[in-house]
Design a protein that fits this description.
six-stranded mixed β-sheet, 7 helices, alpha/beta, binds iron/sulfur cluster
């Protein structure tokens, strides 16, 4: 059951404060203990998501593992999906685009129309990601993500936990203060399966036609929608992570966040 309206912000604030003193597995346990109802963890099988999936499986937490199968993912991503289920002994639920909406999108802008304009790209992400995410989170009390503050400027503004009024749930980011090195070390230490593309220069992995490898020194998310300038691309986000006002998360709470 979702928390009562009057308790939303207080619960998020309490979790946010509690998380600061806990390690990442402890944050997931605290989330499960502190929130009634369905908790969803969305994975795109990136390094961070693999660490969290391992933590959830290791602790046997009642948190649903979910992915948004856009239909345009790399073969390597499907491989790590299969391997994650096998090695962790979990099932990861797939949320796919609505068939009629996808057919209409392709009819309207072509199979790769996202290259032609930013509105086209947003329309594709809406059909393939945003709408399936809304279904995945429907009725959930909390949403756990693998977001880290140091992934991009726009993510430095996030907290450990907040109330997402738009979706009416608690959003929790247990790896918020981890560095990429922290995540890689965790996966290596625990033998978590990782996407083979990471070793080929892909720190951030999305849909195959929209992700390229990055050069040394480039931002982690520079390979996402690389053909768009950052102002065009709304800073390399796809609309999944938006604030209560419906806009992308902005740098409003960077103080107190180490590079994690
Ligand atoms: S990342 Fe590219 S292919 Fe995937 S949903 Fe967005 S625009 Fe479409």
């Amino acid at each position: 059951m979702a928390p009562a309206a009057a308790d939303h912000d207080a619960l998020a604030a309490r979790l946010d404060a509690d998380f600061a003193a806990l390690d990442a597995p402890g944050r997931l346990r605290a989330l499960r203990a502190g929130v009634e109802g369905r908790i969803v963890f969305t994975t795109s099988f990136g390094l961070e998501d693999q660490a969290i999936a391992h933590m959830i499986a290791e602790a046997g937490l009642d948190i649903a593992l979910v992915t948004l199968d856009t239909g345009r993912m790399f073969p390597e991503t499907y491989e790590v999906w299969r391997e994650t289920e096998r090695r962790l002994g979990v099932r990861i639920a797939a949320y796919c685009p609505d068939g009629a909406a996808l057919e209409a999108l392709v009819e309207r802008q072509g199979i790769d129309g996202f290259y032609e304009s930013v509105p086209n790209r947003h329309a594709c992400c809406d059909v393939r990601k945003v709408a399936p995410l809304a279904r995945a989170l429907s009725g959930a009390s909390a949403w756990a993500t693998g977001l880290r503050a140091s992934q991009s400027l726009h993510r430095t503004g996030m907290g450990f936990a907040s109330f997402d009024a738009g979706r009416s749930l608690i959003k929790a980011n247990p790896l918020l203060d981890w560095s990429r090195e922290d995540v890689a070390a965790y996966c290596a230490r625990h033998g978590a399966p990782v996407n083979a593309l990471h070793a080929r220069g892909f720190p951030s992995i999305g849909c195959a036609p929209c992700t390229r490898a990055v050069q040394p020194g480039e931002d982690e998310r520079a390979g996402r929608w690389w053909w768009e300038t950052s102002d065009q691309a709304n800073d390399k986000e796809c609309g999944l992570h938006v604030g209560a006002d419906g806009r992308l998360v902005r740098a409003v709470k960077a103080e107190g966040l180490a590079d994690r």
